[in-house]
């Protein structure tokens, strides 16, 4: 008899089964898909780590499984315990690394059963893990227990330590009975994605002091260039690409971030380590509104990609976001995020930073304005842009200079085709 324990995936300790591809008595091969799962904003699959015959399935569709849970039992001699999938090896390696870091914690904390990821998040938020009630096996504290906790977090300011409570999306008491006394109420259970978005927004707003700056970009040259390239992009030899404005915004942002003057906008504020982490890679997230909620797929190494290559990535990731098939890996590693609220017909907005990033760019709806050109009035189209910054890291002037640089690149879009 061989037990298959869920070992987590991509740093995720808890997933929900969306469909099951096996049945008791079935012979499976190593690599065969056992379950389709969803975790927070990601969809993925759990594959068999070895050959064997399914003797027992311990969970059903819709159940939540956590790291360490025995999800399938195999009978027969084909199952080899040493045969583990690459994903599990990677997860175990990462777990051991975090456990090594956790060994530095106090003996009191070491007595608490907790996943390494939960310990790390607790440390980052300044939460005493001893005060958290775990919902995992044998009372183990999970990542979600930390996120859902209403415990006080101690965070430091630049001059001194200040203790205050960071609310989570589940920490406010609501008198449901009183609301129902006024009239009927529809109870809509929170989806995993909505809960994840809610907690992320609260964490960002109560951690990073937001400041938002705005300006307009003359889109005349960009519109003309896109119209020209669009005819080339749709040709079969170029991949029949749908060319929107988003690839140009991604390229302009990545190009600007790569300049040394603006490196702080591609960083993370690490107060516990008394440092700012400046990333030397440029992975641009693009907020996508889907039926399941807000998702942020990431275009990796955008500074090294040509416009058509970025467009391919944008199209593929957007399609997966709509279908709900994005993997966790496709939404990780972002260094800067762009959100297009112009697609909803909005002119300007004050977007919330995708924490732990330190800035987010918002794009408003394209609109026509009268401008004076050679003493004559002409009508040009403009994109309103807004940037929200983490004021702990970035001051208003550098952020303004960054916006001016992005504006210059978009108003002279031929520069985006040079590399």
Text of the CATH class of the largest domain: Alpha Beta
Give start-end ranges of low-pLDDT stretches: 77-96, 98-108, 150-164
Stated plainly, the CATH topology of the largest domain is called Chloramphenicol Acetyltransferase
State the fourth-level CATH superfamily of the largest domain.
Chloramphenicol acetyltransferase-like domain
- Sum up the overall morphology in one term: globular
Strand content: 25-35%
| Count of strand segments | 21
Mean pLDDT metric: 81
Structurally, the number of domains stands at 3
- Largest sheet, if any? 7 strands, mixed
User: Which class of secondary structure composition applies to the elements?
Assistant: alpha+beta
In DSSP terms (H or I, runs of 4 or more residues), the helix count works out at 10
The radius of gyration computed from the alpha-carbon positions, rounded to a whole number of angstroms, is 24 Å
Q: What's the N-to-C terminus distance?
A: 57 Å
CATH architecture of the largest domain: 2-Layer Sandwich
Helical content stands at: 25-40%
Cofactor: (R)-lipoate
GO molecular function, one term: acetyltransferase activity
Domain Peripheral subunit-binding (PSBD): 113-150
Domain Lipoyl-binding: 1-75
Q: What can you see in these coordinates?
A:
The protein is an alpha+beta fold. Helices cover 28% and strands 26% of the residues. Strands 11, 14, 17, 18, 19, 20 and 21 form a seven-stranded mixed β-sheet that branches. It has a four-stranded antiparallel β-sheet with strand order 1-8-6-3, with no helix packed on it. The chain has a four-stranded antiparallel β-sheet with strand order 5-4-2-7, with no helix packed on it. α1 (86-102) packs across α3, α8 (246-257) crosses α9 and α8 packs across α10. The termini are far apart.
